Amino acid sequence: MGRLQKILIPLLGLVLAFWFYSARENFKPEMLQGKRVIVTGASTGIGEQIAYHLARMGSHILITARTEAKLQKVVRRCLELGAASARYVSGTMEDMAFAQHVVSEAQASLGGLDMLILNHVGASYFGFFDGDVEHVRKLLEINFLSYVAMTTAALPMLKESEGSIVVVSSMAGKVGFPFTVPYSATKFALDGFFSSLRQEFSIQNINVSITLCILGFIDTDRAVRAAAEVLREVPAPRDECALEILKGAALRRRELYYRYSSTRLPLLLRDCAAELLDYLVRSRYRLPAAPGTPRPPL
Ligand SMILES: NC(=O)c1ccc[n+]([C@@H]2O[C@H](COP(=O)([O-])OP(=O)(O)OC[C@H]3O[C@@H](n4cnc5c(N)ncnc54)[C@H](OP(=O)(O)O)[C@@H]3O)[C@@H](O)[C@H]2O)c1
Ligand SMILES: *[C@@H]1O[C@H](CO)[C@@H](O)[C@H](O)[C@H]1NC(C)=O
Questions:
Q1: Handedness of CA 86, 90, 96, 97 (dihedral sign)
Q2: How many folded domains does the chain comprise?
Q3: Considering only CA atoms, which residue is closest to atom 25 of ligand 1?
Q4: If you take atom 5 of ligand 2, which residue's CA is the nearest one?
Q5: Residue 269 belongs to a domain with what CATH number?
Q6: How far is the CA of 153 from the centre of ligand 1 (A)?
Q7: What is the C-alpha end-to-end distance of the chain, expressed in Å?
Q8: 33: CA distance to ligand 1 center in Å?
Q9: What is the pLDDT of residues 255-297, one digit of tens each?
Q10: Is 32 helix (H, G, I), strand (E, B) or coil?
Q11: Looking at the domain assignment, is residue 20 inside a domain?
């Protein structure tokens, strides 16, 4: 025991020192200069802000969502802000062929890809699970399956560039959340797929990073409209959120928590006091929402 401790304690110290040192690497905006990046769900919200940050850093940007008029505006703004180039493709992620088409557009117009930022979410309701199985299937296609399709299509280019995949998820993808059952299910699915894929990349020496982003309540229009009245929480600013996502991505982190205090810290309870965490999650809500109200998810 004594000898084991003599070895273990210095070893632990070394591991911690290494971890600390490697975690200290600093983000510099130049890291994203000239990089070719796809951002999905970039017509509004967090995705739009990610596009603007990338533009300021001088990236080549390809954005996508359904609403063409909004995408045109975002592209114009990106060019004003200094993007190396900016373009859009409009269409719906309900359609896997469209998801793959976005990736081939990057191949055709940018000649490759350095970063794939998967951020879009389909509309869902905010309320008790209403038993609509068809809605769950559709949401899985938009929020999950299209992420898989785009990743698969982009992988050859990402291997070539030693690039990065960024998956925007939520606290609701790490712990059960009431009133967003279908949404939460799609976010858990992302964790399963991408965490497993990361393991295989590691085994196969595939140098493509995967950053899973665990977000708390963010002040995007749709989230605020859906939840501001029922959540006892002040939403965090979307532009800061977008920047933190890009920092985590550029530093090739496995997971990114924003804000740290309302995501990472409560999640520490998950393995040792799961019921306490469940209680804390429930206590964030002011009152049970009316069932079936069609509202977008968190
Ligand atoms: N805001 C929060 O509090 C919060 C919290 C945790 C996690 N998140 C995550 O952060 C990400 C961004 O959220 P947000 O609040 O910025 O959302 P948002 O403002 O509602 O933006 C969603 C984006 O997805 C696009 N979209 C919706 N349905 C689509 C479809 N069928 N096909 C293609 N694109 C579609 C929308 O554009 P169109 O309508 O033009 O298609 C829009 O650009 C999501 O993954 C979300 O789960 C957000
Ligand atoms: C993986 O790719 C990144 C970005 O190109 C590079 O900085 C890093 O050294 C690579 N790691 C390995 C093990 O090749």
A1: negative
A2: 1
A3: 41
A4: 162
A5: 3.40.50.720
A6: 21
A7: 50
A8: 25
A9: 999 999 999 999 999 999 999 999 999 999 987 545 555 554 4
A10: helix
A11: no
